[in-house]
């Protein structure tokens, strides 16, 4: 079983983040790894930027839905290890070796501990701290997700009926089957959703969405 990576990044108008992320990834991956960008309909220069990198594969999604975009990436991945990553995050430089080590030790699914890039408030520090502990702060896409391709399909892929929180849904459906391992290295995560909104609002919305999983499925319109 090979240890080659398919890094899958869903985007919508993420040109500025990709300018930083793509060179970082290309400097820290193996020559047999691949980077897959799935675009939900960007109106910025995302596609033009990606064309500059011969090792980055570009796919277009007719719907701007992260669940659909992530599944498109997985369906087109050629490697054994899938690594789902948000465009506004930066994993640690040794992410590849850390993930391989976790998989070799029997961990079938997991992510990294978060470090919010502007965590200058105690409330954001709380989010960062508890992302490294098992509990309600786990399973979000900001932590990224590693999983072998065979396990991803065994776990039912991302549920494309979900227009939000598809990451938590996949985590909740599969943590009992695969477990969830938190690598104790920081993934740098953008604080923009906390800056644009409020800490309480973001976490309240997350909590309500998680509760709704028991009753209803947020559908794509």
From TrEMBL:
Chief subcellular location: membrane
Cellular location(s): Cell membrane
Keyword list, A-Z: Cell membrane, Glycosyltransferase, Membrane, Transferase
One Pfam family cited in the UniProt record for this chain: Glycos_transf_2
InterPro entries: Glyco_trans_2-like, Nucleotide-diphossugar_trans
Transmembrane segments annotated in the record for this chain: none
GO MF, one annotated term: glycosyltransferase activity
One GO CC term, this protein: plasma membrane
Keyword Membrane appears in the UniProt entry: yes
Glycosyltransferase found in the keyword field: yes
Domain Glycosyltransferase 2-like residue range list: 6-106
The name this protein goes by in its record: Glycosyl transferase
């Amino acid at each position: 079983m090979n240890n080659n990576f398919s890094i899958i990044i869903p985007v919508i108008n993420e040109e500025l983040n990709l300018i930083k992320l793509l060179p970082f990834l290309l400097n820290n991956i193996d020559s047999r790894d691949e980077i897959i960008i799935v675009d939900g309909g960007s109106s910025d220069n995302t596609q033009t930027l990606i064309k500059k990198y011969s090792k980055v594969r570009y796919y277009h999604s007719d719907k701007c839905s992260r669940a659909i975009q992530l599944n498109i990436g997985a369906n087109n991945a050629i490697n054994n290890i899938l690594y789902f990553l948000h465009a506004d995050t930066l994993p640690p430089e040794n992410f590849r070796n850390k993930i391989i080590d976790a998989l070799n030790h029997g961990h079938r699914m997991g992510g990294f501990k978060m470090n919010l890039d502007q965590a200058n408030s105690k409330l954001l520090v709380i989010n960062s701290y508890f992302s490294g502990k098992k509990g309600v702060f786990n399973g979000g896409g900001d932590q990224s997700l590693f999983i072998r391709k065979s396990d991803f399909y065994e776990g039912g892929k991302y549920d494309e009926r979900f227009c939000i929180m598809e990451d938590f849904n996949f985590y909740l459906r599969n943590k009992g089957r695969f477990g969830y391992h938190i690598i104790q290295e920081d993934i740098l995560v953008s604080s923009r959703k906390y800056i644009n909104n409020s800490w309480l609002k973001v976490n309240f919305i997350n909590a309500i969405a998680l509760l709704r999983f028991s009753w209803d499925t947020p559908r794509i319109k």
